Description:
heterodimer, A: Flavocytochrome C3, Chain A, domain 1, B: five-stranded mixed beta sheet
Amino acid sequence: MTKLDAKIPEGPLTEKWTNYIDKQKLVNPANKRKLDIIVVGTGLAGASAAASFAELGYKVKAFCYQDSPRRAHSIAAQGGINAAKNYPNDGDNIYRLFYDTIKGGDYRAREANVYRLAQVSNNIIDQCVAQGVPFAREYGGLLDNRSFGGAQVSRTFYARGQTGQQLLLGAYSALARQIGKGNVKMYTRRDMLDLVLVDGRARGIITRNLVNGEIERHAAHTVVLATGGYGNVFFLSTNAMGSNVTPVWAAYKKGAFFSNPCFVQIHPTCIPVHGDFQSKLTLMSESLRNDGRIWVPKKLEDAEKIRKGQMKAKEIKEEDRDYYLERRYPAFGNLVPRDVASRAAKERCDAGYGVGTTGLAVYLDFSEAIGRLGKNVVEARYGNLFQMYEKIVDDNPYETPMMIYPAIHYTMGGLWVDYELMSNVNGLYVLGEANFSDHGANRLGASALMQGLADGYFVIPNTIANYLSDQIHVPRFTGNEPEFVQTAKEVQDRLDRLMNVKGNQSVDSIHKRLGHIMWDYVGMARTAEGLKKAISEIQTLRKEFWSDLKIPGNQNEYNPELEKAHRVADFLELGELMARDALIREESCGGHFREEYQTEGGEALRNDKDFMFVSAWEYKGEDQEPVLHKESLKYEFIEVKVRNYK
Amino acid sequence: MDLTLKIWRQANSQAKGKMVEYKVSNVSPDSSFFEMLDVLNQNLIEKGEDPVAFDHDCREGICGTCSLYINGRAHGPDSGITTCQLHMRKFKDGDTIYIEPWRAKPFPIIKDLIVNRGAFDEIIQAGGFVSVNTGGVPDANAIPIPKPDADLAMDAAACIGCGACVATCKNASAMLFVAAKVSQFAHLPQGKVEASIRVQRMVAKMDELGFGNCSNTYACEAECPKEISVSHIAKMNREFLFAKVAAQANEK
Lengths: 646, 252
Ligand SMILES: Cc1cc2nc3c(=O)[nH]c(=O)nc-3n(C[C@H](O)[C@H](O)[C@H](O)COP(=O)(O)OP(=O)(O)OC[C@H]3O[C@@H](n4cnc5c(N)ncnc54)[C@H](O)[C@@H]3O)c2cc1C
Ligand code: FES
């Protein structure tokens, strides 16, 4: 499979990145000014990359769909960011962070990429502090750490419950500085709808100006996508309403391979679904599992009474509570990784022990922590989260245990990239959640922020030079080349087609139905039969969409329904690819659980002999089956084991 | 719950706007304010009418995208939250609810309830940063920062840039927004180096963009969804004064 060369540098694991940097080609400052880079997305990955490129002297154009780069979805991350600083002196180091990440990902990520991630993790914290990010501190004035799932050390840096916000504002301020200097041209309220290739290389994008509907052509020497994850294919998720797969999907249709689409993270601590009108799900930070204990009633009859409102959580005696994570996984207890915690919650609820009116909820109880630490300490640690919970649910978590249930949260899959973060399309780079690279089949908490900033601040500014050093003689593109005109026309045709369906169903109503199919068959537990059903139901729904969709208003104005319609059109194709990917992966690993492949105790059963590979799907055209390529994973520096948190 | 809504409708920045009345019924008290508007919009789409445009994204109170003036208050009747965190249980069956966009000259209306807050970005571009490039910075623990200072910096940094302070202020002043950024950096050693130039540039930009003066009514603090304290304005004023004095001393 020559097409998938990951370009991993030679040498021992610890020296690969330094070897790479020693040998990489460079671009001199005078030439950098002649090179244009498009960065789509201004979340942690995109903002940090755009700012760093501009500091180096490249000319940058950055894009986001919100009204300001500061509002990217990264802003919503609560819990924290990992780094191997070992400030608490609890035995952490780069190797251990690397090891935990590979193991947490259930041995489905590339060793070399993950090791580099762990190596640069420490630089991220230094960089953010230098920018004035107000991380939490100890009384001595030094930085504080907390622990997160899947690790036995405290390596997570945080800024109250708003870590993502503070990191993003740091990257945003670096970006703002470069915008002010004229090195970055910022385009807000723009939707990237297609990618432009010239002679097989990524040279630009087509965007729609969301305010006036204008279709715009933007050209550059290279294109960097940092457009986030695709969790909204499930309709309900913890992602922002506008999060979408469109730029990634456009690249896929232009030949970029899509890797591991079925690897989706379901977060165990979200506020349960309460009604059909619901538009999104809210995450309660994983940090709550540091002190909260998760349980359901031991007796079926108690659970039933609770669901009927005849009994309260507090009335259940200690010995009648099943702290099922502590029971099943004594070594990690409530801090097992997310996939394990989510499945365990589902198992209890499916067996009839679930609480809440729907039976699809478990308790997260702080009474023991309040007794041990005092209400003040608990309030200092989690006060804002408790308040948020109370606002939404109208229940006081200091008095009654919180109720939580798993929800779609993060997508490990994404565009295939090599060690340099370039996709298989020449000159197209992919960063952050949009690529597949570092988290294998399951991501550990506080590692997405780390990856986004590692990609943007420390990896791509180096690796992009390797490509651009060959481009210094390529004159600037104008956007008037025939390839641009043609792609813009294709975008226009697609929008016309959407507007002209003139049927009866709203975008949301179809999106909700897609969400139900995805959750039922491509969610927490999957079977061959269910996945086949999902594929055929999605195909039918897609036909319905294209024949019965209703979009009010016009194209040449602010039209949120048209915006959503384009996104859902892409989700309707992506959903099918996810089901296909889940179907061929006849094993259970990380977030991907096939009911056919489990141990007697209900643990995931991996099949390393046949499935130790990254899937990479190639688009072959509308109504054609995509072709599967495989990048096999080799573990040279780590011993592959059964993941055990017992 | 059955409700009457009076909503500002305006086709685009040039068009004339007006309040239009709508009815929604069977609203669940557990739904959020936006979920109630989603229901209204679904009804409008079914009838072939243009849905009401409003800004929103995270729907959990952190991105700062949402921006409604509800019954005469920025982000509605509840305090310490954004519109997307507002729940219908705060209203009563049969209520009439007035929904308007932020109204301030530097925030022109784009459509219906959506305004352009690009002016905030311009203020940050003028100086709301520490001038460090990527790489080559000291170890994070090389600069100890007293916890109370770090906490104060964090209090200020919690600003989500939604613009409620401007919308609430009768002078459309952006003092609280600017002060929050100035004060965050003023509490940290990293921010000290550029303290004087930062405050001068940001204030000059704010004035240039047409934001009004602060007349100390503290309406901004009361309506700030992140409850950012006006004490940061005092801190900024001190910074500004120092900067001016220093500049005058330099001239001499
Ligand atoms: C509620 C929540 C809490 C989380 N908490 C944590 C945590 O504590 N720790 C952790 O490590 N991770 C956490 N995560 C995960 C983490 O926040 C994300 O994975 C990460 O921030 C993604 O960053 P990104 O830069 O890749 O993309 P994003 O921040 O999603 O940015 C995407 C960018 O792309 C732009 N974009 C998207 N589509 C288009 C388009 N069509 N046209 C133009 N622009 C477009 C957007 O405008 C935006 O600027 C959390 C996630 C959620 C949902
Ligand atoms: S939608 Fe993000 S703060 Fe309201």
